[in-house]
Amino acid sequence: MAKLKFVVNHQPVEVDIDPSARLLDVLRDVLHMTGVKEGCGEGSCGACTVLVDGISYSSCLTPVANVIGKEILTIEGFTQTEQYRMIADAFAELGGSQCGFCTPGMIMSTYAMLKENPQPSEEEARLSLSGNLCRCTGYNSIIKAVLEAAEEARKRGIKW
């Protein structure tokens, strides 16, 4: 056990935990952030996606020791932003979310992509989200939602 310090959703956090514990487990079981999901536990489905210093990570594969001193953003922290509202509204309007299990990870991956590429092509959006699995939508509505959110941000002059 060790005292580990990092930032989650703009709040400093200190946990006394085994440094090899998965970030996913610390977020869910210690910090009670249930928007981060475990789908596969192998980094293949994207349900556990968080941003670490602005970069998309599979929290199920990340030892908590790897985030010491870093900033983690989960869906819970992202929901307070205008960028979240644009993505969530587009997902809702275009049917990008059905059962909702994959949605937090999809939204976090979308945000990470749009920060790097604010006007992606359809092919770029598909490639960027290829690490996120959805059993319900068939992906077309998700990709349309991503492109709509990007376009809406451009129209409003909002930066990712």
List keywords for this structure.
single chain, 160 residues, alpha+beta, Ubiquitin-like (UB roll), DNA polymerase, domain 1, 5-stranded mixed β-sheet, 6 helices, 39% helix, globular
Write the layout of secondary structure elements.
Blueprint: E1 2-8, E2 11-17, H1 23-30, E3 49-52, E4 55-58, E5 71-73, H2 75-78, H3 82-94, H4 103-116, H5 122-128, H6 140-156
Parallel strand pairs: 1-5
Antiparallel strand pairs: 1-2, 3-4, 3-5
Helix pairs in contact: 3-6
Describe this structure in words.
- 39% of the residues lie in helices and 16% in strands.
- The mean pLDDT is 96.
- The chain is built from six helices and five strands.
- It has helices spanning 23-30, 75-78, 82-94, 103-116, 122-128, 140-156; strands spanning 2-8, 11-17, 49-52, 55-58, 71-73.
- The protein has 160 residues and is α+β, with helices and mostly antiparallel strands.
- It is globular, with a radius of gyration of 15 Å.
- Strands 2-1-5-3-4 form a five-stranded mixed beta sheet, sandwiched between helices.
- It has two domains: 2-77, Ubiquitin-like (UB roll) (Roll); 81-156, [2Fe-2S]-binding domain (DNA polymerase, domain 1).
